[in-house]
Amino acid sequence: MYELRHLRAFLAVAEALHFGRAAERIGLSQPALSRTIAELEEALSVTLFRRTTRQVSLTAAGEAFMEATRETFAQLRRAETAAQDAAAGTTGLLRIAYNDFAINGRLPELIRVFVERHPDIRLELTYLATTLQRKALLTESIDVGFLIGGLESEGFANYPFHEDRYVALLPATHAMASRRELYLTDLADEPFVMGTVDQWGAHRERTFALCQSAGFFPKVVQEAGSSEGIFGLVAAGTGVTIYAECVRNLQRRGLVIKPLSDVTAVTPTIAVWRRGNRAATLARFVECLQNVWGRSSP
């Protein structure tokens, strides 16, 4: 069995082709270097060097072993660099979850900036509803989530990422589509399209609370699991809905977007991560998040 010290000794002699100079180079006595080379040759069961009183040269086996040894040390240097980069957070994996409002809003801008700054960090981006993101954060299956309302649990950082005003979405053919001003109370008797409970639970709760504060409870006649499904049902004339203003970033035929003049509330997208997560990639992401949005960590 041989060790790295044997390989270092061999490479020193192979490159210097002189035991005295090689011993001086690696800080060994010449007898100690000779013993080390002998141990290596015995472990390999080959002769690596031809030795005369005047000259040291490599055998064919030594030539082959020198090339392989050089590649071994090059690989070790790459391994050292990889470990150091991972420890510094310049490489590695970061698991990010997002909801509809985040990905249709300003999250793509943040991701673009982060990728430009840290191109060697691999991002695993996953769509998850807010309720599922909370579970994923608790079970540590994601590193950071972008969700509605955050996660009020000890040990988690909640960082205000973006706020969207609420808007009404109407079919283009709706009688109120051409109105200059629209109030939430105007929708009291309208049929509503809503996201399903399992995918849109957090948004439904906030929407119902808004409507109740305006004196009515929405009559839900259709449900969809995705934003595209909601938009399609509204465009088809089956009902109206309340959505985040980030919908303006999307193009969808058959829809009219109307601000709600009597609604001042906003829907907050919060970035959440576990404070005890020591992953260097997460630290780099949090640093970028703070720099991009110009806020300090909560």
UniProtKB/TrEMBL annotation:
- Gene Ontology MF terms: DNA binding; DNA-binding transcription factor activity
InterPro entries from the UniProt entry: LysR_HTH_N, LysR_subst-bd, WH-like_DNA-bd_sf, WH_DNA-bd_sf
The domain of life for this entry's organism is Bacteria
Task: Give a Gene Ontology cellular component term annotated to this protein.
Answer: protein-DNA complex
HTH lysR-type domain sequence ranges: 1-59
Gene3D superfamilies linked: Periplasmic binding protein-like II, Winged helix-like DNA-binding domain superfamily/Winged helix DNA-binding domain
Keyword terms of this UniProt record: DNA-binding, Transcription, Transcription regulation
PROSITE patterns given for it? HTH_LYSR
Q: Which PANTHER family match?
A: HCA OPERON TRANSCRIPTIONAL ACTIVATOR HCAR, TRANSCRIPTIONAL DUAL REGULATOR HCAR-RELATED
Similarity remark: Belongs to the LysR transcriptional regulatory family.
* Stated name of the protein: LysR family transcriptional regulator
Protein source organism: Acuticoccus sediminis
